[in-house]
Design brief:
The complex is a heterodimer of chains A (615) and B (100). Chain A has 25 helices and 2 strands. By secondary structure, chain A is mostly helical. The model of chain A has no long low-confidence stretch (mean pLDDT 85). In chain B, 78% of the residues lie in helices and 0% in strands. The chains are: A mainly alpha (615), B mainly alpha (100). Chains A and B meet through helix 25 of A and helix 1 of B.
Chain lengths: 615, 100
């Protein structure tokens, strides 16, 4: 079965072509095709994960794609525990999103193309995960980027949405530039080898110098910063909320943003030997988790709260990877559990938005009485994200925080604790503002259809139990699936766990006191300067706009545009114009009279004969 | 046995008459006939040299030219008929649509 893993990305890819080409002519406007394909992939993924769990080692095979000089490009598959876990997560969330979209996107005018791109998105991410070499990974990486661009801008008629799509594309592309150079550096240093296991072996055996590995790791990490929305490129993710909610769930839980974390994990042999690279990764993670959590505190748009929470949680994973080999498993354990409850939270938000037709929490309130299922599943998701035992988020987040302490990264440990506190506050705030109190909007919101509630209930179940897969005292299986040599460490500490839970509960308490009764003026506004700083996103959008976009847009882009118009267009038009002038003269020869042509013909022959006989 | 030179002069005269006809005649049928003259001038040359060099290749070649010329004139006359049906003239000066 493992050898046929390539079918897992292939099935959604086929579904994409079928839906894209046949579109609305298919039954159900193409949606069943995508759902069946990804369900089949999910089944295969679970079988593959089972075989990995049963002890089948990493599997690798590849075929030659093309040969360019000394560089041999391959197309292959590399299946280990990390790959298998990602297979399951991606397929599961994609399946849930596609089922959920049946209700959420009902009657949308571009329903078929929406499903086609969802399938392509899934296939691209699976291709990125299965890739056994850097170039195949890059192909998946870029396809994921273009798919998220297409889906974020699904409702492109509104300028705001298409702007958000362009922003997502351009900002992640900024990170892709160093990523591309990282691939070049590694491939050149390895003598034209782009194969990831081979590069990992070279890095582990010390064939590549530490300095070179540091440079390569930092360059690769640039890609992860862009894709996983880490500081300073986190600005695109909140705007990406312009897309349909199921797409946000897919982007945040399983595809797009997880690609960056996956990249660091897949290339961890390159990161691990370099202390500087790990320190940088950890620092970026720590900065991002804190600033994202503070910005989540002040949002009014429910999806933006969740978006910043994703940035913050991804930063937990990144910071965990920065802790060294010991943080490897906790990072992916958190990614695994986070996928379930974050998708759940987005579906809950989507369900609410579907009912009240606004994203603003100030126009919600009191929905708990009207939407019971949404209310309870959202409560489970919130508790899981805050880290209430024994829900999924508790095990994984506690794992990261404990590892930070045990590996003596006290700065990261403290930041992680503060962030855990802030997480509890902003999630309590969002929950109370949405579901408690009196309804402040217009109309009469109703519970969403069953096709939307089913994935939510299912994921709520997973958000409760998934954590036990990695729970330390019952020897959770997860740590055998995804492991890094040298990463074994003490993983459970009663005192630390109690501290972490206490911090979370304190956060809930603070949130409860502040937001128990809805107030027109947010209580946090009393913070004054900090409130401004957080609502203005640390002025980073302004810095990018004024500092980068304007200097480029007006002087540089203006100069290039006028160069293009005068010199380049001038040259092209000049060639065309001179050709027309010349032909205006020459066309009189073309009289249409056969006999005149014959005269030229004979004259030519006569001249030729004369010349040849003279020579 | 006729002298080679006489034959060549005859062929050259024939060819020149053909060229004149092609270039100067207005009637498309006469133009075609003039082309036949040129072809036959070539044939005369071929046969004359075949006899002079005691080599049959030239005669065989001339047979081929006659066969191809038959085909050519068949197509040529068909075109002329079609042009006449469409435009009611076969004056080559007036058939000059294919131009700027």
């Amino acid at each position: 079965m493992i050898a046929y893993s390539w079918l897992i990305p292939a099935l959604p890819a086929v579904a994409f072509f079928v839906i894209f080409l046949l579109g609305s002519r298919l039954p159900g406007r193409g949606a069943p095709v995508g759902i069946v394909a990804v369900a089949a992939s999910l089944g295969m993924s679970i079988v593959v994960l089972g075989q990995i769990a049963a002890g089948h080692g990493p599997f690798e095979s590849s075929i030659q794609w093309l040969q360019v000089g000394g560089l041999r490009l391959e197309f292959g598959e590399y299946i280990d525990g990390l790959t298998a876990v990602f297979f399951v997560v991606v397929c599961l969330i994609s399946l849930c999103s596609q089922v959920y979209s049946l209700g959420y996107m009902k009657g949308d005018r571009r329903f078929s193309s929406y499903y086609a791109f969802l399938s392509l998105f899934t296939a691209s991410m699976l291709n990125l995960v299965i890739a056994d070499n850097l170039f195949q990974l890059l192909v998946g990486w870029e396809l994921v980027g273009i798919c998220s661009y297409l889906l974020i801008g699904h409702w492109w008629e509104e300028k705001e949405n298409s702007d958000a799509a362009i922003k997502a594309f351009v900002v992640t592309k900024t990170g892709d530039v160093p990523f591309l150079f990282g691939i070049f550096v590694l491939t050149l240093a390895a003598g034209g080898v782009a194969n990831i296991p081979q590069i990992s072996n070279m890095a582990a055996s010390g064939q590549l110098g530490t300095g070179l590995l540091t440079v390569a790791a930092l360059l690769l990490f640039g890609g992860a910063i862009g894709k996983s929305a880490q500081f300073p490129l986190q600005v695109w993710l909140p705007d990406a909320m312009a897309g349909p909610t199921p797409v946000s769930a897919l982007i945040h839980a399983a595809t797009m943003v997880c690609a960056g974390v996956y990249l660091v994990g897949r290339m961890y042999m390159v990161f691990a030997p370099s202390g500087h690279a790990l320190a940088f990764v950890g620092t970026i993670g720590a900065i991002t988790m804190l600033i994202a959590a503070t910005m989540a505190l002040v949002q009014d748009d429910i999806k933006r709260v969740l978006a910043y929470s994703t940035v913050s949680q991804l930063a937990y994973m990144i910071a965990s990877l920065g802790l060294g080999p010991a943080g490897y498993t906790p990072a992916f354990f958190h990614l695994f559990t986070h996928a379930f409850f974050k998708a759940l939270l987005f579906y809950g938000a989507g369900s609410v938005i579907h009912a009240v037709h606004t994203n603003n929490m100030s126009e919600m309130g009191g929905l708990g009485k009207r939407m019971r299922t949404t209310y309870w599943t959202f409560a489970v998701g919130t508790a899981a994200l805050i880290g209430i035992p024994p829900l999924a988020g508790f095990w994984s987040k506690d794992d990261i925080i404990a590892t930070a302490f045990n590996t003596h990264h006290y700065a990261i440990w403290i930041v992680a604790l503060i962030t855990a506190f802030l997480t509890a506050v902003y999630m309590t705030r969002a929950f109370l503002m949405t579901f408690r109190g009196e309804y402040r909007g217009e109309g009469h919101p109703h519970e969403s259809p069953a096709v939307m509630l089913a994935p939510m209930v299912f994921l709520a179940g997973l958000a409760i139990v998934a954590g036990f897969l990695g729970a330390p005292f019952i020897h959770g299986a997860f740590h055998y699936w995804v492991a890094f040599p040298g990463g074994e460490t003490e993983r459970f500490n009663w005192a630390l766990t109690i501290l972490t839970v206490a911090v979370g509960l304190t956060g809930i308490g603070v949130g409860w006191v502040l937001y128990r009764d809805y107030r027109e003026v947010d209580p946090l506004k009393r913070l004054g300067g900090l409130w401004t700083l957080w609502t203005r996103k640390y002025f980073m959008d302004d810095i990018y706009n004024e500092g980068i976009r304007h200097p480029i847009q007006y002087p540089i882009a203006g100069a290039t545009a006028s160069f293009d118009r005068t010199v380049i267009d001038g040259a092209v038009n000049g060639v065309g114009l001179s050709t027309r002038r010349l032909s205006g003269v020459l066309r009189y020869i073309q009289s249409g009279n056969v006999q005149r042509y014959a005269v030229f013909l004979f004259a030519g022959v006569a001249i030729l004969a004369f010349v040849i006989t003279r020579l | 046995m006729i002298h080679l030179t006489i034959l060549l002069i005859f062929a050259a005269f024939l060819f020149s008459a053909g060229v004149y006809g092609v270039l100067a005649r207005r009637n498309a049928v006469l133009v075609l006939m003039s082309i036949e003259l040129m072809l036959n001038a070539v044939n005369v040359n071929l046969v004359a040299f075949a006899q002079y060099l005691k080599d049959l290749t030239g005669q065989i070649f001339a047979l081929f030219v006659i066969a191809v010329a038959a085909g050519e004139v068949g197509i040529g006359l068909a075109i002329v008929i079609l042009i006449y049906r469409n435009r009611e003239t076969i004056d080559v000066d007036k058939i000059d649509l294919l131009k700027w």
